[in-house]
Amino acid sequence: MELSTLFLHSDLQWASVSAALLVLVIFSYVFAYRVFSVDHEASVDFSVPVPEQINSGWKGEVLDKPSIKVSGSSGIQCYNPANGQLLRKVNPATPDGIDRAITRATEAQKEWAKTTFGQRRRVLRSMLKYILANQDAITTVACLDSGKTRVDAMLGEILVTVEKLKWTIKHGEKALKPERRPTNFLMMYKYNEVRWEPLGVLAACTAQHLTSHPSISHLLFIGSRPVAQHVSISACRSLTPLCLELGGKDPAILLDSISPRLLHQIIPILLKGIFTSSGQNCIGIERIIAVSDTYDCLVPLLQKRIEALHPGDPLSHSSNYNIGAMISDSRFPHLTSLIQKAVSEGASLLVGGSQHHSPSAPKGHYFAPTLLVGVTPDMAIAQEELFAPIALLMPAVSTAHAIQIANSTPYALGASVFADPGDRDNIEAVVQGVKAGMVSVNDFGAYYATGLPFGGRGGSGYGRFGGEEGLRGICNVKAVCRDARWAQVLLGGIGTRIPVTPPLAFFI
Question: Which of 35, 89, 171, 232 has a CA-to-CA distance to 321 between 20 and 30 Å?
């Protein structure tokens, strides 16, 4: 008994020593790996000069009549639409300048096409690190340039860009990995695959000289339908493929299964969808279509919240401002006219409806947050993209009627549907029935931050950017068909055997 106890004690000691040695070996390996290994995809630090305009205390000349045009010159005035301060004057690109830029990009693209996915990820990781480290400066620039609030800049410039970079770093290589495709009985000895290869120099600008340039391989245009038609005509001269994102008249459909508690949760989402960047958002909510009792409950709740919105300079010292400026005041008379016309046709104006004059920024471009209820599809304001801080509330009698109203415009970009999560049949009816390129369920614009393809149909354009479809859309799609390896071994040489007919044999 004593001997067996001794052996057991000895075994336990050896087990303890072995475990300790194992932990020591693992720790040493991890330490050595971290110290001596080289991460070939690690980010690289770089810097970009910071514009002086973002420095605290900088004051620019306040323009008497803020405009991008300079009288008697082709120059462009860049100014802060929140207060009218001149930021800088720049000269537009010339055809020769565009040619030189494209030539440099073409040469650089040849080398970029030879890089590995690991090298490309390193570039993207470097960009990601820079954006996260300099997000305060970037959002300040965005606020100065567009007049939006810092929260809107964080969502629109930082969050979305970071998401796109992280998605591409994590999933880009997989999206572009050659994909095997099926064959058929006659060609059973063939191996088929599709490859996505670098297409060339891509552009996302609208200069006429650029849109028909023979060295541009793909164009992305984001803007209005009339301008897109000119871009398309120009691009067809060089047969340059296009991706067009032309805005929308996005509906938010609220079904009658919404409880009072759920409705209070939905209100902030609606407000964010309508008033982000003062309504200057291509996927912003332009129409709220509410069914039956939900409509009646929604009106006072929206009115109270919209009355509490205060436009003003987002970079001023006041913390009272929660909505920023519009990029220009050129459309204010037209917006006011549309509202007045809708009221004359039966709609009710409950909040706003005209230009807002900020005492602290009298040269800023502000439109008062607006609520217009009782809007019907036959009103001009219900058909035109407003791109402004205007909430339109439209009544519907049923889910089918709500879908009909949603589909009553030429646009078909995004849409939202709100309902009790258990109301699956009606939710699915809206998701399937609404004409749109993207739909959020019980949310607004969530598809824009989840790596999904972005784009619309009809009057909202065609093509996709973002996600796997967007990445593949800017590639050359190459189909490759070859003899399968087993066929090479069994058949020897080339698998295809074409018999030589007598007339052909005469020439052999």
Answer: 89
Count of H helices and E strands in the chain? 16, 18
Tell me what pLDDT residue 12 has: 52
Are 122 and 115 a contacting pair, CB within 8 Å? no
Catalytic one of 143, 157, 245, 468: 245
Give the C-alpha separation, 94 to 353, whole Å: 41
Question: Which of 209, 201, 232, 202 minimizes the C-alpha distance to 99?
Answer: 209
* Per-residue pLDDT tens digits for 153-168: 999 999 999 999 999 9
Structure tokens at 318: 């006041």
> Tokens 């809206």 belong to which residue?
430
**DSSP-assigned states of every residue in 179-208:** EEE---STTTTEEEEEEEEE--EEE----H
In sequence order, the β-bridge partners of residue 220 are: 243
The token duo for 330 is 């050129």
Name the CA radius of gyration of the chain, rounded: 30
Dist. CA 499–CA 334, nearest whole Å: 74
Place of tokens 């699915």: 428
Pairing mode of beta strands 216-222, 461-462: unpaired
Per-residue tokens: 404: 């009909």
Q: Choosing from 243, 282, 286, 468, which is the catalytic residue?
A: 282
Cβ neighbours around 82 below 10 Å, total: 30
Is there a catalytic annotation at residue 245? yes
For the record, the structure tokens of 74 come out as 């082709």
Assess whether 307 carries a catalytic annotation. no
> How far is C-alpha 339 from the chain's CA centre?
30
> SS3 sequence, 231-248?
HHHHHHCCCCCEEEECCC
Question: Among all chains, which residue has been given the structure tokens 């605290």?
Answer: 56
pTM, two decimal places: 0.89
E strands present in 46-134: 76-79, 86-90
Question: What angle in degrees, to the nearest 10, is found between the helix axes of 399-406 and 424-433?
Answer: 20
**DSSP alpha helix (H) spans, 276-412:** 292-307, 332-344, 399-406
Check pLDDT > 50 for residue 8: no
**343-386, pLDDT tens digit by residue?**
999 999 999 999 999 998 999 999 999 999 999 999 999 999 99
Tokens 């609030």 — which residue?
Answer: 149
